[in-house]
Amino acid sequence: MLALLLVVLGAGGAYGFWYLTEGPAVHSAMPTVVGLSEEQARTALDAEQLDPVVELDFSEDVPAGTVVSADAAPGAELRHGTDVRLVVSQGPERYAVPRLAGLTVDEATRALEEASLQLGARTGRFDETAPAGTVLETDPDVGTQQPPGTAVAVVVSDGPAPVDVPDVTGRTEQQARDALTGAGLVVEVSDERVFDDEVPDGAVVRQSPGPGAVERGSTVRLTLSQGPELVEVPDVVGRQFSSAEAELTELGLTVVREDVRGGFFGTVREQSVDPGTEVAPGTEVVLAVV
Predict the structure, then answer these.
(1) Can you tell me the distance from the alpha carbon of 189 to that of 186, in angstroms, rounded to the nearest whole number?
(2) How far is CA 200 from the centre of its chain?
(3) From residue 177, how far is each of 171, 200, 251, 253, 279 by CA, in Å?
(4) Pick from 278, 277, 257, 279: which is nearest to 269 by CA?
(5) Dihedral of CA 241/243/244/247: which sign?
(6) How many CB atoms lie within 10 A of CB 60?
(7) What is the rounded CA–CA span in Å between residue 255 and residue 260?
(8) DSSP class of 71
(9) How far is Cα 251 from Cα 70, in angstroms, rounded to an integer?
(10) What is the C-alpha R_g of the chain?
(11) How many C-beta atoms lie closer than 10 Å to residue 88's C-beta?
(12) The model scores a pTM over 0.70
C-alpha cells in the first residue's frame, strides 16, 4: 500500500509539474483578431497573456487601424508571453503631389520621384513672367493625395509669347522707336549712316531683323539714312558745252542747254548752279551757251 501510495503521489507530482510548466497553465489559445481594431486585438491578446507586436502596412481594402493579419492562426496554443505579430492597416498608400511651380523639368522630376510619383505629360504655354522651361502648374493639383507611381502632368512655360516686328523702313528714327518699343522690342541705332537716294536724311534705311515673329525683348538694329550722296558742282563757265556736259553728266547731274544768240560758238557763258555747291545727283544744271 505504501508503495502504491508513493506511485500515485509521484504521478500526481509529475502531472502537476507538467501542468504548471508545459501544460494549460502556461498556454493559451490564440484568439481571432483579424478584422478587429488594433485596440480590440490588443485587449484580446492581453486577456490570453500574449504580447502583441504591431506592424503598420498600407492596404487598399482594409480600413486604417484594423488588423489585416496575425502570424498565429486562431485556436493555436501559444505559451504565455509569446510575441504575436499583428499587421495593422494604415489605409491606402497615398502621396501628396509636391509643389512644382517655378522648378525646372529636371528638378520637378526629382521632386516627384522623392514623393513616390512620376512625371507625366508635358504641355507648353507662353507666359510673360515665368522663365522658359519652368513649371507653371500641375494636374492633379498640389497637395492632392495619389497612389504611388501616379503620373503628374505639368504645364511648362515657353517664355513670353513671340511678337511681330513691324516694318519701320522709311520712318523717322522717333517713329521707328515708338513702333518697335510699343511692340515690346529693344531698339539699337547704328552709329554709321548710309547714303540713300530715296530715303530722307534721318529716316530708317534698313532694320535687322526685318518684319516677322521674334521673342519679346529682342533687339532690332536700325540703320539711318543721311540722304542722297551729294556732288560738288564744278566751274564749267568758259568751257565748250560738250566738255562741260560730259563732266556734269558723269557726276550724275542733269544738263540743260540754253543757247544765247544762237549759241554758235558753243561756249558756256553761265551756269544755273554756282560752282562749289553740293547738290543731289540728278539735280538740273542749266548752261547758257553762246
Answers:
(1) 10
(2) 45
(3) 9, 17, 36, 35, 30
(4) 257
(5) positive
(6) 9
(7) 16
(8) S
(9) 110
(10) 51
(11) 22
(12) no
The per-residue pLDDT string of the chain (290 residues; one tens digit each, 9 = 90 and over) reads: 776 666 546 544 444 444 444 545 689 999 999 999 999 999 999 999 999 999 999 999 999 999 999 999 999 999 999 999 999 999 999 999 999 999 999 999 999 999 999 999 999 999 989 999 999 999 999 999 999 999 999 999 999 899 999 999 999 999 999 999 999 999 999 999 999 988 999 999 999 999 999 988 899 999 999 998 889 999 999 999 999 999 999 999 999 999 998 888 999 999 999 999 999 888 999 999 99
Helix (H, G, I), strand (E, B) or coil at 242: helix
For residue 73, give every residue at least 6 positions away whose Cβ sits within 8 Å of its Cβ, in sequence order, or none. 30
Question: 276 phi and psi, to 5 degrees?
Answer: 90, -10
Do residues 125 and 136 make contact, with C-beta atoms less than 8 angstroms apart?
A: yes
Strand partners, 139: 153
Residue with cell 494636374: 139
**DSSP secondary structure code for residue 262 in this structure:** G
Cell 522623392 belongs to 114
d(C-alpha 43, C-alpha 106), whole Å: 51
